Amino acid sequence: MRCSLSLACLLPLLLACSGSTEPNSTPIPAPDRAGWGSDTPYEGFLLVTPLKSQDVFLLDMQGETVHSWETEWEPGNSVYLTERGTIYRAMRIEDDVDFQGGGIGGGLQEIAADGTILWEYRMADSNRHAHHDFEIMPNGNILLLAWVKHSRNQALSRGRDPELLRGEEFWPDSVFEIRPFGSDGGEIVWEWHAWDHLIQDFDADGEGFGVVADHPERIDINGDRDPELMSPEAMDAQMDHLAAMGYAGGDDPQDPPPPPSHDGHDGPDDPDADKDAPLTEKQKRRNKYRDADWMHTNAIDYHPGLDLIVISVRRFDEAWVIDHSTTTAEAASSTGGKQQRGGDLVYRWGNPAAYGMGSLEDRILVGQHDVQWIEEGLPGAGGLLAFNNGNGRHGGDWSSIEEWWPAQDSRGIYLHEEGQRFGPAQSNWKYEAETPEDFYSSFISGVQRLPNGNTLICSGADGLVFEVHPSGKVIWEWSCDVVPEPEEKEESKSPVQTNSLFRATRLAPDHPGLQALREQGVPIPARP
Question: Fewest Cβ atoms closer than 10 Å to its Cβ: which of 32, 66, 335, 448?
Answer without folding.
Answer: 32
